[in-house]
Amino acid sequence: MPYRANMMVCAGTGCVSNHSLELKQALEEEIQKRGLTDEVQVVPTGCNGFCGAGPIVVVQPDGIFYQLLKVKDIPYLVEEHLLKGRPVPRLMYVPPEEKTPIPKMNDIGFFKGQMLVALRNRGMIDPENIDDYIARDGYRSLAKVLTTMTPDEVIGVIKASGLRGRGGGGFPTGIKWESCKKAEGDIKYVICNADEGDPGAFMDRSIIEGDPHSVLEGMAIGAYAIGVSQGYIYVRIEYPLAIQRFRIALKQARDYGLLGDNIFGTGFSFDVDIRRGAGAFVCGESTALMASVEGRPGEPRAKYIHTVEHGLWNRPTCLNNVETWATVPVIILRGVEWFTSIGTGDVSQNPWGGSKGTKVFSLAGKINNTGLVEVPMGITLREMIYDVGGGIPKGRKFKAVQTGGPSGGFLPTELLDLQVDYEQLTEAGSMMGSGGMVVMDEDNCMVDMAKYFLTFTQDESCGKCTPCREGTLQMLEILKRICEGKGVPEDIQLLEDLSHFVIDASLCALGGSAPNPVLTSLRYFRDEYITHIRDKKCPAHICRDLNVYTIDPELCLVKGHGCGVCRRQCPDSAIVGEKNQVHNIDQELCKKCGVCLDVCKFDAVKVA
Amino acid sequence: MPKLNLEDLDKISEWRRRTTMLREGAGRAKVTVHMGTCGIAAGARKIMDALLRLVEENDVKDVILTTSGCAGLCSREPMATVELVNEAPVKYVDLTEEKIGAIFREHVLGGRPVLEYALALGSERTQ
Ligand SMILES: Cc1cc2nc3c(=O)[nH]c(=O)nc-3n(C[C@H](O)[C@H](O)[C@H](O)COP(=O)(O)O)c2cc1C
Is B14 inside any structural domain? Predict the structure, then answer.
């Protein structure tokens, strides 16, 4: 019997930790109780991207989107929607500051502005079932290249498509493949970079968890084009579900003969193994990654030796990012013309000429719709933040957005109409990176944010080269000093000089990009540094040492009747005052913890 | 397990698409059975069962069956709406298993609405 409805239950990491697997079981039980087992199928899917609304269930064919579900909602949902055919408004998504629920997934702003290429099977297939992937044209591109195209033709298509690496560098994929193919040596490798070390980023994890075969198919196509019979996936051990989905996918593909010897009877053989990394940020860097796969410490080496010639075990190696690999099959199937119609610039002469296709971003920070989105290249930051991201919560004002992960730059309000593409982001002092996007509002202090991200990159610096190891450390010390009110006017120049020195002299792009947050905050938010240094003030009141807490006597007495809560809660006994009398803060004793501000119900505590 | 060849890939794809097509909501035809309390009381369940059987027996791969609530015309239940791609939806009323069989053959498969069972051509606007 055919099914009349599919309940697509999100089983991405976010929804699973919000109990979506219990939800799935409850659904199955309820469906059985109602005698609908033959009509309604429950399908676990990869991440839908709208993680803030999880756990999510989408009912197909109607595309009704249910969010924030609990096990206790299930009986009613099954009875109303599946039995009586009445979708349940109270379980639907309601946009912030609106009242009317939106029933259909594709009408929700978050989904409407998106264009799914790398995530084409998101929410549509069971990632543990290869047949689902095949039903949506899976492995058709591999069949096409193996039976109808020469390796050079494949490379020609990828070059003409203008596809550029989605892992950080934005290097044209076709050119990389071509160099690796031309490199001397009989044994060559392809590697998938699934290290994904950017804090808060989960683009790659989501692709693997939701559609592992798309990555394998891309790798097989690349392997054929370059002349490779062995591939590796380098994935961090903190991604257990991704590793498991890869393992299942590998087994299913081997069982079908889509990996292994003599694929489709064409004589082409290719297989893939998984290598697990311990999760160091630097191990995402190409040469450190290859060292780690070989079992050596993950440290980069100088760039003048190219990995496409001397990579893994000194053999020619082509490394691409998860999203890059996952995009390859679609380009083969739908063609160059389609792919180049999306995005900016002109790649007809050379692949560096533009940014084509789509890019996956993880939206985080002060934004209503946190989650994972795939958008066409060339979308403006404004569209991204306000249309897809749903704007800033609690009506606060936008201040900056950081693109490209922890070493991306901060872009201010004046640049909201900037188009998201490789060149424009770099020109503005930031980068595409692997697709992190962190939104900051008026309550964020930009000096503090620069310090925060530099703390991460400093911590993750492997220590092999001095400029990165020592340079980032000294920069961090200066930033800490400024935030503590001990900055001197010369610090600004010193920070700028050190930044350029670290960028120019570091061995790899970790040091080469780590100063970006500092440089862009100096470029676009210089006055905040000056206020910290000259006035010893933090305009956002984030840098506690610069805050002065006082009590408004009027409010304390008239509204609060000298309630004394602040006095009792102050850990340093810095507040004095009799019950029912005005209270006061002794500035000598105050350690600026801010507890009084938090506990006063009458807004009598002021911070300046 | 034997290795897949190109025809096998097509076969798996075609067979599996029956299930996955549903998720895309993109069939050639969509049949909606109105299953509000009134519809269920009037026998909508039987209509749905009959449709599921017809799809199975005729090995149809591009038709989506779905349900909706009360269509607001409770006295004429059971009701169903047939929508072919790019054509106006047709509402059928006072259905029986025989009638739905004829509608399935003539309209869903043949593309010719069965006017004698139809309430009216067209439908109120749906999203
Ligand atoms: C410190 C550092 C971390 C990196 N982390 C990653 C990562 O997690 N994933 C990734 O794909 N690329 C990462 N890269 C970029 C890789 O070195 C390389 O450019 C990329 O994997 C190539 O694939 P692509 O051309 O498909 O983007 C990192 C680079 C640096 C310098």
Answer: no
